């Protein structure tokens, strides 16, 4: 291991090369020959013989070598001089050690900084790669969602095809001795739809299996027609007629102001779509949400605004993205009997 560098007492710079400095043989103070103004052969000659930084150091050194020379100096003074010299030597040695430690510490810090910079560059490269991977995953997820949505819509079309002859009538109060088929015929007659005698295959109330939900007096009526054309004719006549109230069914049909609404029977996918949109109704500032035809959910922000269509769960996600941020979500009822309160005035 190389010796610690000497510290020049003039410029205070550590000097590792011994050939550039001279050191006092008495007090061990080091100085650059250049700092003393000595160059070339003069500097070499100065280093070739014992060097004293001052006359005092020279006298002290010679007296130490020849004790008889100290006879003229008081012992107390000599003791003080020696103490100061030793103190100076100790301080210089401490300074040299400190400078060596600082140099080693600076080297260590420099190495650590290089390691840190290398790690930061590595992390940056990893971040860029992860960001790219996330982008790829998001793209794949988007394609997957679109594929799932297409499959859901295809399956829903198949399920709706099985219900193409079915309809649901809402708003007709329940009575104990009612004939649901006759009620359907009365509704058809009220809108001037001439149904053949065998046009209605089945007409039953959609009573909930949950007793706690059997509170509505206007349980929806599920109607199965013999032919799709019979249903479409009823829908067309109802649309031309406009609003239809229970008063058109005659006495004993409940409150005269009850609105009667006729809709397609919804598939399970359509019901879920309706439920999802209604759960976002308040947050998305939708004043009206109601089921349309062909499995579409219709929405309006106000009575005068444009009707928007929700066809798939992708449309629901878009609705979620555009909704305003709120702390809590208020879920709305999906009971078909409550849809009268959330639907604008349709003509059918």
Automatic annotation (TrEMBL):
Residues 268-319 form the FP protein C-terminal domain. This is FP protein C-terminal domain-containing protein. It comes from Culex quinquefasciatus. The gene is 6049779.
């Amino acid at each position: 291991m190389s010796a610690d560098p000497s510290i020049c007492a003039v410029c205070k710079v550590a000097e590792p090369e011994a050939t550039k400095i001279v050191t006092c043989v008495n007090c061990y103070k080091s100085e650059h020959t250049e700092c003393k103004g000595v160059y070339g052969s003069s500097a070499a000659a100065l280093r070739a013989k014992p060097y004293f930084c001052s006359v005092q150091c020279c006298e002290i050194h010679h007296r130490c070598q020849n004790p008889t020379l100290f006879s003229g100096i008081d012992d107390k003074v000599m003791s003080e001089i020696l103490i100061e010299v030793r103190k100076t030597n100790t301080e210089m040695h401490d300074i040299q050690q400190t400078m060596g430690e600082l140099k080693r510490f600076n080297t260590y810090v420099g190495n650590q900084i290089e390691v840190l910079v290398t790690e930061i560059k590595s992390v940056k490269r990893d971040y860029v790669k992860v960001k790219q991977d996330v982008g790829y995953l998001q793209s794949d997820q988007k394609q997957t969602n679109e594929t799932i949505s297409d499959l859901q819509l295809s399956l829903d079309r198949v399920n709706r095809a099985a219900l193409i002859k079915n309809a649901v009538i809402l708003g007709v109060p329940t009575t104990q001795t009612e004939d649901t088929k006759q009620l359907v015929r009365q509704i058809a007659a009220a809108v001037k739809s001439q149904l053949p005698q065998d046009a209605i295959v089945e007409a039953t109330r959609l009573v909930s299996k949950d007793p706690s939900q059997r509170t509505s007096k206007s349980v929806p009526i599920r109607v199965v027609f013999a032919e799709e054309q019979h249903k479409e004719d009823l829908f067309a006549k109802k649309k031309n007629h406009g609003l239809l109230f229970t008063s058109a069914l005659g006495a004993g049909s409940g409150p005269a102001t009850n609105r009667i609404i006729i809709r397609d029977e919804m598939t399970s996918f359509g019901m879920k779509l309706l439920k999802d949109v209604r759960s976002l109704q308040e947050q998305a500032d939708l004043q009206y949400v109601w089921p349309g035809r062909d499995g579409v959910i219709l929405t309006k922000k106000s009575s005068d605004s444009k009707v928007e269509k929700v066809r798939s769960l992708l449309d629901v996600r878009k609705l979620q993205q555009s909704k305003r941020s709120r702390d809590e979500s208020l879920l709305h009822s999906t009971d078909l009997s409550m849809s009268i309160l959330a639907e604008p005035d349709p003509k059918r």
